[in-house]
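ERR on first pass: missing label on line 2. Operator R.T. fixed the label and resubmitted. Corrected input:
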Amino acid sequence: MKINLAVEPGSTMKNKTGNWRTFMPIIDHEKCIACGTCARVCPEGCVFANGEKILQGKVFFEKDLDYCKGCGICAEECPVKCIKMEIEMK
Amino acid sequence: MNKCIEGSHAVAETINLCRPKVIAAYPITPQTHIVEDLAKMKANGDGGYEFVRCESEFAAASIILGASASGVRVYSASSSQGLLLMTEVLFTIAGMRLPAVLTCANRAISAPINIWNDQQDAMTLRDSGWIMLFAEDNQEAVDLHIVAYKITEALRIPVMVNMDGFVLTHTFEPVDIPEQKEVDAFLPEYSPEQGQFLDINMPVSLGCFATPADYMNIREELAIDIEASKKFIKTQLGNYKKAFGRGGNALVEYYGAKNPDVIIVAMGSVVGTIKDAADELMEKKKNVGLAKIKCLRPFPKEELVKVLGKTKFAAVLDKSISLGQEGILATEVKAAAQNKLSAKIQSFVVGLGGRDITKDSIKEIFQHVQKRDSGLSFVE
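pass 2 clean. output:
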């Protein structure tokens, strides 16, 4: 038996699952009100505040595209509809 | 020690001698006596294992999977519908490369519901990735279980030992049960490879998801390893003979005339009946032989081709059927013979659902296989 079937901890750091995605979320920062709903509803937990503040003290949200599978829940739940799901060309 | 003992009890005593740590089982006829005896031994303080009573066979198989993943020796037994209920987990045990030994007390499959012996249950699990051994009598069943642990722990491929329900499990025969120290010498305590079992000091995940990039390679390796296991199985059967003076390393055993015109191919308890029938036929100067298949998976193609050699007719007896095709063993024999043998190979389905197979049925098959037709035949 040559293939090791036992996997050590931390393998999800190596296995990027973002390539399962068909649609990619695009956030329009002009319309975004920084409410954080997208981060709360993301089933993969891969939406996070990027730390950048603009003038009014708004915090921008970004996606970790290494793990985002393009489910579109963030776009559906966004109260100002600033997230668009677009077909990703690979 | 020689004992006149029921087949199931002999297997239970043998399993206890192999010192498993976890036994999980759900009763089903005709396997029940095996696990019943093991439960009794545990209750009497004679068993050094956890005995888990489960709510179904699916649970029993899952529990031995988990226990094996935690790095201990495990055992379960089942039959018929119970084995089918285990099916999903049995494939998983093999795919995860976990050592396990399971006894199948072979029984017919519903419907119609029937508790008696045939081998449809085990044959349905043929492609599960388990090594499948078939015992001719209770002594062989005892011996194969001890060898099974040796094989499964070295190769990390699970082993199913098959013994015909009732015909063997419920029959009292003289059986030589080895001494504890002999078994301990042959089968030392199981110690799994570091980093290959669930250990809080060295955390790993087992049974992970595999994408198309890996799945096929993993299945290919399992196929190659099972095919290659023939050599190891033979070596261990040979070592067992050296240590205990019984058995032999052949995966296909031959019995009968020197240059037979007809060879009957079979496995399991029917082999005893065929030997008696062959003796009577040979007394009448009939040129007949018997090829006993001891190991269905991996299938001993090369050995079988050698045994069948220049014979003109091969009658393959099946206690099971692939509906819409023919006897399952017959298909296997034909596949092995392709471009290698000129014998006419014919499928005979016998003894379904506990129908008696008599010496007369064997003699009828001996006559029939030499006739012109080559179709599937159900022998009454």
